Amino acid sequence: MLAIRLGGLGLSALGALVFGLFVGGSPVAPGDVAWVLLHPHATSDVATIVWTLRLPRVAIAAVVGAALAVAGFLLQGMLRNPLVDPFLTGVSAGAGAAIAIAVVLGVATALVPAIGFVAGLGTALLVAALARRGSGIDVERLILAGVSLSALFASVVALVLVRLSPGGAEEILSWLAGSLAGRGWNEVLWTSPYLIAGMGLALASVPSLNVLRLGPNVARGVGLDLARAQWMLLVAATLLTAAAVSLAGIVGFVGLIVPHLARRLFGTDARFALPASALIGVALVAVADAASRSIVPPQEIPLGVLLAFVGVPSFLYLYLRPRGTSRLWGT
Amino acid sequence: MGHVALRGVRIEVAGRPLLDAFDLDVLPGEFVAIVGANGVGKTTLLRAVAGFHPAAAGHVSLDGVELGTLPPHRRAQLVAALGADAEAPSGMTVREVAISGRFARHPWWDWTRGDDDVEAVVAALGRVDLAEKADRAFDTLSSGERQRAWIALALAQGARALLLDEPTSHLDARYALDVLDLLHGIAREGTTVVAVLHDLNEAAAFADRIAVLGEGRLLAYGAPALVLEPEILRRAYGVEFTRVEIEGQTRVFARSAKENGRLEGGRRNRDSGRI
Question: What is the pTM of this model?
Answer without folding.
Answer: 0.89
